[in-house]
From TrEMBL:
Domain called DYW: residue spans: 517-609
PPR repeat residues: 167-201, 300-334
Listed NCBIfam families: PPR
Gene3D superfamilies the UniProt entry points to: Tetratricopeptide repeat domain (1.25.40.10)
Name assigned to this protein: DYW domain-containing protein
Protein keywords: Repeat
GO molecular function: RNA binding; zinc ion binding
Record GO biological process: cytidine to uridine editing
Family (UniProt): Belongs to the PPR family. PCMP-H subfamily.
Coiled-coil segments on the chain, per record: none
DNA sequence: TTAGGGTTAG
């Protein structure tokens, strides 16, 4: 009677993740001398895994005099659950020829999925196919998940089609694969065919859409889910939908979702609070982000990092540094994302020594290998501070081939520092052998050639940009005024308030020309047309109409918040600085890559974008 | 004993 009793108690521990109770039960089992009973030992391994203690599971496994397939499957699963899938594969390899059963196959496939090692994954799949378990639907479900996680959605679909009895789990794995890879129609079609949907299926579709940048689609599915009255028993879907608000910079929707989070009682969940910090920061409301952070009772590295990155992006470098010191003194270890934020902050205020120090500390104190992004951030910092040779040396010494943002960082540094010769040398290389894909790189190239009077090359850069223009999205900006969002497209002249908007912008332009010596910088327009036409295009850039509308309609004294799909051009950047000074209003613009807080004639990006 | 959904950069 003792053994069934302990098995029952241990299963309760596994369900409730109570490690202390598991340890005390383990001690009693040892004292009673029944620890060698293999169902008990295997269940203990399993419980330790579920409670997140891989070391206990592994120790127990090592001490087993005999190991059956259940023991192997339990320890491999425990290692997967503790996020140690590398160890899963090495423990299996050390088995010296264990023939996997269906359970072991599942654990191995999951390990490959977690690690993203498709080479191993295909090997395991091959062995599975020729094994006596080759018809097992559970293993096939994990294979669907593995291929989906490794971006081989068609392979996932092939395995999915071979599953004889599909259940909600296998359907969900496939829906998740399609949604994450941006295959919207297939994801939706498959989702509609799921006979019994649960919260996992809805979450898979919604989060997949968010991850593939389809925030609006995610929202419409979420609304449908609410309409269907699906019980939100756990908060995972909420963190995804908060993320959708963040990516869309949809602050009104974001606040509503925040309200829902509170109403459902998930506001003390760390994951959700982290997502909310990020959402408020991305909606340019750093005060609200700080408020969420300060109310949290438990914070993890993502909580600290989200706020540090938010501050860095909004030009609050000193605050970001102070928060980092605070984080370290709280004993929280920074991760690779923390350092991206910190070095980014340094580059915006020109803290060269601090940036170099952080870059070194990352490797020395925290054993984090710098990624290409860390190098690009450091390169930005060096280039911006005029240390162009050091920046170029860094490009040659880094252990990665430089990508387009890296070259763009060096090029824009050359332009800013007036290093025409170096700029032309790099531009020549890019144009002849690199094949940039970002239109803004061609604008940069064209500007560099123009300042060196190399007109032939200017037109070559323009021609290449022209070739890709067909695919370019039309520019638009949105502005939120009194809980309503108004969208303006570039060149749009059909708005009901067009006369008021035109009048206000004309007034600003005249004042800027008279008092600030403003001359429109038409080098940002690369179409072939006369100067007057170019100035007209600049005048109707969507962010200007949006700002004018905001100034006409928003509550006096409140900041004007703009979200733009493309990057703000250099001329609009100058104009918005002037407008913020003339009107004494704060204008906050989130463009495709950066945040700009215009206030009193200055911008938080320090004219670096 | 095995399979599905979540947060920070870009």
């Amino acid at each position: 009677m003792l053994i069934p009793h302990y098995l029952h108690q241990l299963k309760l521990c596994a369900r409730n993740r109570t490690l202390t109770t598991a340890k005390s039960l383990h001690a009693q089992i040892v004292k009673l001398g029944i620890a060698q009973c293999s169902p008990l030992a295997n269940t203990l391994v399993n419980v330790y895994g579920k409670c997140g203690s891989a070391s206990h599971a592994l120790q127990l496994f090592d001490e087993m005099p005999q190991r059956d397939h259940i023991a192997w499957a339990s320890v491999l699963t425990a290692l997967n659950q503790a996020n140690l899938s590398g160890k899963t594969l090495s423990v299996f390899t050390s088995s010296n020829g264990l023939r996997p059963d269906d359970f072991v196959y599942s654990a191995l496939v999951k390990a490959c999925a977690n690690l993203g090692t498709i080479k191993h994954g295909k090997q395991v799949h091959g062995n599975f196919i020729v094994s006596e378990y080759s018809h097992d639907d559970v293993v096939k479900s994990s294979l669907v998940d593995m291929y989906a996680k490794c971006d081989l959605v068609d392979s996932a679909k092939a395995v999915f089609d071979s599953i004889r009895v599909k259940n909600t789990i296998s359907w969900t794995a496939m829906v998740s694969g399609f949604a994450k890879s941006g295959r919207k129609e297939e994801a939706l079609e498959l989702f509609r065919r799921i006979p019994v949907k649960n919260l996992y299926s809805w979450t898979a579709l919604i989060s997949g859409f968010v991850q593939s940048g389809k925030g609006l689609e995610a929202f419409s599915v979420f609304i449908e889910m609410r309409r269907e009255k699906v019980d939100i028993l756990d908060p995972l879907v909420l963190s995804s939908i908060v993320g959708a608000c963040a990516n869309l910079a949809a602050s009104i929707a974001g606040r509503q979702v925040h309200g829902l989070v509170i109403a459902l009682g998930f506001d003390s969940c760390v994951f959700i609070s982290n997502a909310l910090i990020d959402m408020y920061a991305k909606c340019s409301d750093v005060v609200a982000a700080k408020d969420i952070f300060s109310r949290m009772r438990h914070r993890d590295v993502v909580s600290w990092t989200s706020l540090i990155v938010g501050m860095a992006q909004h030009g609050q470098a000193e605050n970001a540094m102070a928060l980092y010191d605070d984080m370290v003194s709280h004993g929280v270890k920074p991760n690779e994302v923390t350092f991206v934020g910190l070095i980014y902050a340094c580059s915006h205020v020109g803290f060269v020594a601090k940036g170099r120090e952080l870059f070194q500390s990352m490797t020395k104190d925290y054993k984090i290998r710098p990624s290409l992004q860390h190098y690009t951030c450091l390169l930005d910092l060096l280039g911006r501070s005029g240390l162009l040779d050091e920046a170029e040396n860094l490009i040659h010494s880094m252990p990665f081939p430089p990508d387009e943002p890296t070259w763009a960082a060096l090029l824009s540094a050359c332009k800013r520092q007036g290093q025409g010769q170096m700029g032309v040398r790099i531009a020549d290389y890019l144009l002849s052998s690199f094949k940039p894909k970002d239109p803004s790189t061609y604008i940069l190239l064209s500007n560099i050639y123009a300042s060196a009077s190399l007109w032939g090359k200017v037109s070559e850069a323009r021609r290449k940009l022209g070739d890709m223009e067909v695919r370019k999205d039309p520019g638009y900006s949105s502005v939120e005024v009194r809980k309503e969002t108004e969208v303006f497209y570039a060149g749009e002249t059909s708005h009901p308030l067009k006369h008021e908007i035109f009048g206000l912008l004309k007034e600003f332009e005249e004042e800027m020309r008279r008092r600030k010596g403003y001359v429109p910088d038409t080098s940002w327009i690369l179409h072939d047309m006369d100067e007057q036409e170019k100035e007209k295009l600049l005048f109707w850039h969507s962010e200007r109409s949006a700002v004018a509308y905001g100034l006409l309609k928003a509550v006096q004294g409140t900041p004007i918040r703009i979200v733009k799909n493309l990057r703000v051009c250099g001329d609009c950047h100058v104009v918005l600085k002037h407008i913020s000074e003339i009107t004494e209003r704060e204008i906050i613009v989130r463009d495709a890559t950066r945040y700009h807080h215009f206030k009193g004639g200055k911008c938080s990006c320090n004219d670096f974008w």
